[in-house]
Amino acid sequence: MDEQANRAALDALTEKMRRREARIGIVGMGYVGLPLALLFSEQGFAVTGFDIEAGKVEALNRGESYIVRIPAEAIQKAQAAGFRATSDYAEAAGMDAMILCVPTPLNEYHEPDLSFVTGTVEALAPHLKAGQLVVLESTTYPGTTDEVVAPRLEAGNRAGLRVARSWSDLSHDCVHLAFSPEREDPGNETVARADIPKVIGGCGPAALELGIALYGSIFRRVVPVSSPAVAEMTKLLENIYRCVNIALVNELKQLAMRMGIDIHEVIEAAKTKPFGFQAFYPGPGLGGHCIPIDPFYLSWKAKQFDFHTRFIELAGEVNTAMPYFVIDQIAAALNEHEKPIRGSRILVLGLAYKRDIDDLRESPSLTIIELLRKRGAEVAYNDPYFPRVGHGRHYALNMTNTPLDNLAQYDAVVIVTDHTSYDYARIVAEAKLVVDTRNATKGIVSEKIVRC
């Protein structure tokens, strides 16, 4: 097609998105991709979910959910509106837009692992058609969309398509490429997903125009930025901001403990200031798919510019050390009861990285359990969201959930994840010793409690 025809096709697709008639494909049916698919479906879009895990595809096509906060009824409602799942990337040819929500973990050297992104792009590229929009949502370092995704899309497609970077590129058959960072907050029930502003940066003006139309159909506010790199950096700033401030309160907590001051009382008092302060809370370490990982993406990329991100790396060091601090506090608490860690029976409450979710990724609980085992403790766990935990990317626990029916048999109960379903008053009453890393026992007065 010539430039005029391609421009007409672009305008038609933009209008199609605004009318919610575009066909949307979302790759990665996990904690980011599945909620996004359901949001598009709720707004009337025809959605196809792509995933390489056959078990997920089969579950979704049976109308079942594997994420606790997403009920099966939501899947079934989406199915009634046309949602289905597949592992066949050839079906991408029938989509108007493809959104990639795949993992971006770190490797064993704390360097970016983009294998899920590159593998997905290379599998997708042969099936692309002219005029389609491809959006990467996976958190990554600035430059990934331009430097990693775009060349693979161009090299891998069969039709010789190029990524449109200017209006003049519409004189050739093109695909449109953009980056829009996910802003999922698992367990957050106070902010509707559609109310979270959506940042979008396109490789060219056409991609930005399409991205605004696409996301403007489901989000109440779209925030366009000048490039994918700006959008990529935006996501990193958001998470590094949290990482640094959590490191600050984790360090201040340790100082406050030595001074005999309750850091949580300090935070509650400080947050009464109506300006210049935002409350962050200490804990046993960072978890989840973003905050423990994203700072390392930027520090790795910064080295290419001969820049050392000392502040970011220091925050990472403080947060990474928190599980070890917790172990020291458990040892000290047991010592007061004339018990060593070696041989002690310890129950860890909560495996998830935050309360009321079923997500283990980078959870400090996993590290704490492994460290306790290395110190010779006999460790059990309880978490209502995990009947069993086996092997993962960075752990091998092979444990089953222990019921809370005989807390007195343990030398210590350690609260690592403060699920709201726990009866903390009962736990304190029945346990010999409670080590609370989350201030979950706030308001309960007992000599059994050690808060750290």
Protein described:
The chain has 452 residues and is α/β, with parallel strands linked by helices. It folds into two domains: 3-226, Rossmann fold; 252-451, 3-Layer(aba) Sandwich (Rossmann fold), CATH 3.40.50. It has helices at residues 3-18, 33-42, 54-61, 72-80, 115-124, 144-156, 205-216, 228-259, 263-270, 294-302, 310-320, 322-336, 364-374, 424-430, and strands at residues 23-27, 46-50, 84-86, 97-100, 133-136, 162-163, 174-179, 198-202, 222-225, 345-349, 378-382, 388-391, 396-400, 412-415, 434-436, 449-451. Strands 1, 2, 3, 4, 5, 6, 7, 8 and 9 form a nine-stranded mixed β-sheet that branches. Strand 14 (412-415), helix 14 and strand 15 (434-436) form a beta-alpha-beta unit. Helix 1 (3-18) runs parallel beside helix 7 (205-216) and helix 12 (322-336) packs across helix 13 (364-374). The N and C termini lie far apart (66 Å).
CATH architectural grouping of the largest domain: 3-Layer(aba) Sandwich
Number of strands: 16
Discrete helix count? 14
What is the element string, with H for helices and E for strands?
Answer: HEHEHHEEHEHEEEHEHHHHHEHEEEEHEE
Kindly give the count of domains.
2
CATH class categorisation of the largest domain: Alpha Beta
